[in-house]
Design goal:
Oligomer: single chain
Largest sheet: 5 strands, mixed
Order of helices and strands: HHHHEEEEEHEHHEEEHEEEE
Radius of gyration: 19 Å
Shape: globular
Number of domains: 2
Number of helices: 8
Length: 278
């Protein structure tokens, strides 16, 4: 059983003793608690349960500081991610050390809450530090598109219960950097004439379908989602996109528990990705 009491106690004390604590939490201290939890492979403290009124700007400030601590520790930014776009969008940072290729074996025991998400990744041809004007301009800036499997680590207690409270879960994901952990990239392709919105995507575990996206009826606007990640998360938070980064704008077939077995994800014209969880 993973122990979270020390971190929770520290956060409770922080909120309890700071003057006007509900309005002025110490973002750096909370980020350091998250960093320590990550380093020791324990759950992140649920700061939303402790203080449900935390402003979203504070939540993103904690995320920025949490990311900065990981960069100071030697990690480098490998890309950016979005989720719940367009209804309740949130963003996070991917790290280069977590980007995988080929057909790897994923050790489930190294994650606290492994999830599997089918995504599409974008790589730009040039550095972008100011907002992109339109989807058409984004397409002109894009050099590569990849079938991609995000492998987040949902390192929070009571995840199944949190899934029943979307507002709480979404707010907790912001400061914890959206559970970012690993991303498996398939073979890249040029954007060309691929209609990403119409691609069928099937996720299979040991030959049994566990997730499907029907391209013919999908309401995903994948390019618009990628544009949100760049303009409203990356640029808005002071980051820059470079050709070394990838952008993933959200899951296509939902969240799948990272159960053991052989996975095959078919993206139709965009190719397939295979990996094993054990």
């Amino acid at each position: 059983m993973k122990l979270i009491q020390p971190a929770l106690f520290a956060v409770c004390c922080l909120f309890a003793h700071a003057p006007h604590a509900e309005n002025t939490p110490d973002a750096q201290y909370i980020a350091e608690l998250f960093f320590a939890a990550q380093k020791s492979a324990t759950y992140f403290p649920d700061i939303i349960k402790i203080n449900p009124t935390l402003d979203e700007s504070i939540l993103y400030e904690i995320q920025r500081r949490f990311v900065a601590l990981q960069v100071q520790d030697g990690s480098s930014i490998g890309g950016f991610k979005g989720g719940f776009i367009p209804k309740a969008p949130v963003g996070g940072v991917l790290f280069a050390k977590g980007i995988l290729h080929g057909s790897p074996t994923i050790e489930r025991g190294k994650f606290q809450g492994l999830l599997v998400e089918a995504e599409i990744a974008f790589r730009l041809c040039q550095t972008v530090s100011t907002p992109i004007a339109s989807v058409a301009e984004l397409k002109s800036f894009t050099c590569g598109i990849y079938p991609a499997i995000e492998l987040p680590d949902a390192a929070v207690a009571d995840l199944d219960q949190l899934k029943q409270d979307f507002v709480h879960l979404r707010r907790l994901l912001i400061p914890t950097n959206m559970a970012a952990s690993h991303l498996l990239l398939g073979e890249g392709a040029e954007p060309g004439t691929l209609d990403l919105d119409r691609l069928d995507v099937t996720v299979e575990l040991d030959g049994i379908p566990i997730g499907f996206r029907d391209g013919a009826t999908s309401k995903h606007d994948i390019w618009a989602r990628a544009l949100w990640v760049i303009n409203d998360f990356v640029i808005a938070n002071g980051y820059t996109v470079t050709p070394n980064h990838v952008i993933i704008p959200g899951s296509l077939t939902g969240l799948h528990p990272g159960n053991p077995g052989r996975y095959r994800v078919d993206y139709g014209e965009l190719g397939t990705v295979e990996f094993t969880v054990r």
